[in-house]
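Lecture 7 notes: from sequence to structure.

We start with a single chain of 169 residues. Read the sequence below before looking at the structure.
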Amino acid sequence: MYSPKTIQYFNNQKNYGRIKNPDGIGKVGNIVCGDVMWLYIKLGKNKKGEEVIKDIKYETFGCVAAIATSGQVTELAKGKTIAEALAISKDAIISELGGLPPIKVHCSVLAVDALAEAIYDYFSKNKKPIPEDLQRQHEVISESRGIIEDKYHDWIAAEEKMHEAGRER
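Now the structure, written as tokens:
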């Protein structure tokens, strides 16, 4: 059973969509459940001159929990410094949503991974030093992605085509 807040985030998708010319894009998926998340970030400076996530949006193809956790991670990350955003955990997302069924906890992991990948992409594009923990997380995500891409090439090609078709609308 989903919490009322999870249902609310599913029915009223906060921060859904794309950012034009994002500073970072994170894409993650789970072949077992079929969920795929794209997360887009735009950075700016706060009053202290620190880099913060000024805008963040997502596109998720998945279940109620995948969509709700995507929206919740964007709410938690918006306005945060990169370090604060990287500290967002699956447990924080689950807590904010009022819990998730145990079989849906992996959706919160996907949301955290999508955020990490968007930040990693930002660091990479801007030739900034990548924190060690983020580098390790990226390597684990990349290894899993490689296995999935090798095994499910046709599925991934179809999913990418569907996503690109959405951009053309």
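The longest strand covers residues 51-61. Keep this in mind for problem set 3.
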